[in-house]
Design a protein that fits this description.
There is one protein chain. 33% of the residues lie in helices and 29% in strands. With 301 residues, it is an alpha/beta fold.
Length: 301
């Protein structure tokens, strides 16, 4: 099956600043992908590369099996909602839909009308007088009415209050289901990612730190509590991602394992949640001193 997103040694540089470095990704189809990481990690750069708004400095990126924005047919396959959910303040909601119909040959007017009715958005209202949540819903409606195979959303709910964000995510999932599309959602809100995403990409320090289906990643990691000396002597195939010292002698660590730790060992083992897993990989990047870079095998687990 054709990957939704495929990158090989992908890099993007702005002068001396490396926004992305040696990014390798292979995201299967039919996924809702959460893209997470701190400010400056390269999330928006990756999404702009995927949309064809900018070009790589090195390596390659392919979206739905082709070069991003390779032509009108490929552009029609991708719907994009930018971080500030841009709309034209002086145009009405209906004006936006008419413009979408003129610019997109696969425009689904019935889908657009149904979405507006579900969110109770009056077509006569000017976009400049809409709330932040309504503007985000309008931008999502325009992107979905293209009937794309992939929706790309760059922190579209970042400025929304909790209720508006909840409604936006509900409508996003309805759109993905109705379209049978994949989606990439960049977000700082890990609970949002945990709620709607089944695939995860963690970016930090311009590099991919972790990527894979959420269920597989959670199965590959555990929380281990033990004496520090015992954590230092974990069996082969166990890698400590981040250790937190609880007392002078006892620590807790998020550990990647390729098999279950032996029963009866000098440690206690528990499952990890998505937020704990993400924070562990981000924390590892922030630790001083040398650390191993993730291998392709780790990234694609």
């Amino acid at each position: 099956m054709t990957p939704v997103l495929e990158a090989v040694n992908l890099g993007k540089r702005y002068g001396r600043h490396h926004a992305l470095t040696d990014v390798d990704l292979n995201v299967p189809p039919s996924r809702v992908i959460g893209l997470v990481g701190p400010n400056g990690a390269g999330k928006s750069t990756l999404l702009q590369l995927a949309c064809g708004l900018i070009t790589p400095s090195s390596g390659t990126i392919r979206v739905l099996g082709d070069t991003p924005a390779a032509g009108p047919a490929h552009l029609a396959k991708v719907g994009f909602v930018a971080q500030d959910t841009p709309v034209y303040a002086d145009l009405s909601v209906a004006d936006h839909l008419r413009m979408g119909a003129r610019l997109n040959p696969g425009w689904d007017a019935d889908l657009a009308r149904r979405r507006l009715a579900r969110i109770d958005l009056d077509p006569r209202h000017r976009a400049g007088r809409l709330s932040g949540g309504q503007r985000a819903q309008l931008a999502l409606t325009i992107a979905a009415a293209k009937r794309p195979e992939l929706l790309i959303l760059d922190e579209p709910a970042a400025a929304l209050d909790p209720l508006a964000r909840h409604a936006f995510l509900d409508n996003l999932m309805e759109s993905v289901t109705e379209l049978g599309a994949a989606a990439i959602l960049s977000s700082h809100a890990l609970p949002d990612v945990e709620r709607v995403c089944d695939h995860l990409i963690v970016l930090a320090g311009s590099r991919v730190q972790l990527a894979g289906d959420v269920a597989d990643l959670l199965a590959d990691h555990v929380r281990v509590t033990a004496r520090r000396t015992d954590l230092a002597a974990l069996p082969a195939g166990a890698e400590t991602i981040l250790r937190t010292d609880r007392t002078e002698h006892e620590s807790t660590a998020v550990v990647r394992v390729d098999r279950a730790l032996p029963a009866g060992g000098p440690w206690s083992v528990a499952e990890v949640g998505l937020e704990e897993l993400v924070l562990a990989y981000l924390g590892r990047v922030e630790q001083p001193g040398p650390r191993p870079s993730p291998t392709v095998a780790e990234v694609h687990r």
